[in-house]
Amino acid sequence: MINKPEMINAYFVTSPQLSDNFARILSTASSKLKRLNNKPRFLYFTQGDSIKEESQQESYNKLQMILKSSSPKSLEWHHKDLNDNYFMSMPLLTTILGIEQLFNDIHSGLEPTSDISQKGISEIVKHYEYLSNQKYGFEVSPKKSIEKRGFHLLKSSHEKGIMILQEATKLFPDDAYSYHNLARGYGEIGDYENALIQQKVAVSKSETMLTWHRNRMLEFLNKFNNKLTNKSSDE
Prior knowledge:
By secondary structure, this protein is mostly helical.
C-alpha cells in the first residue's frame, strides 16, 4: 500500500516488521499516503504484545499516528490490539476480523445517525452506488441502511419514519421485506390497520421465496391481524 499502491486495494496486516525503518515504510509513509489517488483502499492492522513484538511497539504507535494524520478519505483503515491472543493465532484472527470489517457495508449497513444517512435517501443510494462500482465491483443494496434510518426516525417523528419506509417500497417494489418493514413501522406506532394492509402485500411478494420466508411473512400477518382485532375489541 505504501510502496506499491496499485498492486491491490485491501490489506490485512498483522505484526508487521517496521523497526529500523524497514523498507523505509515509516520514513516515507506520510508523504506517500497523501499522494494516493481516489481509488478506495482498505487496511486492517493488528498487533499484540508478545515477546516477539516488544521491539516493534514504538514503530506500531508511530504508524498509527501517521495513518491518523496523513490518510486520505479514500483509505479506510482500522487498528485492533490482539494482546489477549496467542502470537501464532494472530494471522488467522486478523484475516477473519478483517474480512468481517471489509464487508461490513453489506452486512450491517450505515448507522442511522451517520453523516450520510442524515443527508437522506438520495445520499444513501449514491453512497451504495459508489461502493458497488468502486469498492466491491458488484452490486451492494442500500436497502438495509434506508430501513435502519426509517426505524430510527420513527422514535422522534412517526411521519418522517414512515415516509422513509414508504420510499423503500418504491425503490424495491418487488421485495417482500420492504413491505414487511413498512408494516412493522406502522405496527410500532400502533397503526395496525395499515400494518395489516402492507403485510398482505409482503405475503403476496413472498410467494416465490423459500418456505421459511413465506412462513415468516404469514406469521406477521396473523400477528397484525390479532393486534387489530384486540384493538377493535378494546374500543
